[in-house]
Design brief:
Elements: H1 17-41, E1 54-55, E2 58-59, H2 63-85
Antiparallel strand pairs: 1-2
């Protein structure tokens, strides 16, 4: 792996190659989560009354909850990366 000396960023330490590898692994897994969310977003939404419907043989899903889940997944992966990077500032 190529060694890279990053410019000093306030509140961050110099990452080790192991840190960078862990962050890159987390980012790759997060991308898989994002692809799954996109598959769910392509599915039909439940009816306006909140009842499930079937469109062209495909069951509907509650897109509101998919969006909430996507937000929480994004927050979770950001927290994982922050846990690896260990910033010292708010």
């Amino acid at each position: 792996m190529e060694t890279f000396k990053q410019p000093k960023i306030t509140g961050y330490r110099q990452l080790t190659p192991e840190d960078a590898a862990l962050i890159n692994e987390a980012k790759a897994i997060a991308e898989q989560c994002g692809a799954f969310i996109e598959r769910l977003r392509a599915m039909p939404a439940t009816g306006k009354d909140g009842r499930p419907i079937v469109v062209d043989g495909q069951p509907s899903i509650d897109q509101r909850w998919v969006s909430i889940g996507a937000t929480h997944l994004q927050e979770g992966w950001m927290a994982v990366v922050r846990g690896i990077a260990q910033p010292t500032t708010f």
